[in-house]
Design a protein that fits this description.
1 helix, 5-stranded antiparallel sheet
Length: 107
């Protein structure tokens, strides 16, 4: 099962500019994990542990009247798992994205 909470603040100082800041927490339990079985050298799937993520995310978007837009996003999160260190290793602590949107045809 996965449960989460998020608190979001949005600010639009102008019609073409918007900024968002969010804080979130997510908890996933009984995740399906693939582990090696040392005695046989094979791998086995099983439900194990809990993964908790806490983080913040910020985004700025600028949009032109014709539909073109530029958006930048940064996320910082702290993954934590008591039972399985591999779950934490597979969860990034920092992510960033830059997107440009350009309409292909007028409409």
């Amino acid at each position: 099962s996965v449960r989460g909470s998020e608190l979001v603040a949005e600010w639009a100082p102008r019609r073409d500019l918007r900024a968002t800041l969010a804080a979130y927490t997510t908890r996933a339990r009984d995740l399906i994990v693939l582990d090696a079985v040392p005695a046989s050298g094979q791998y086995m799937f099983h439900n194990e542990g809990t993964l908790e993520l806490r983080g913040v995310e910020g985004e700025v978007q600028w949009r032109r009247a014709g539909g073109a837009a530029l958006r930048a996003n940064v996320s910082l999160q702290r993954p934590r798992s008591e039972a399985h260190a591999g779950l934490v290793d597979q969860s990034p602590s920092r992510m960033a994205k830059l997107a440009a949107i350009v309409p292909l045809a007028g409409g």
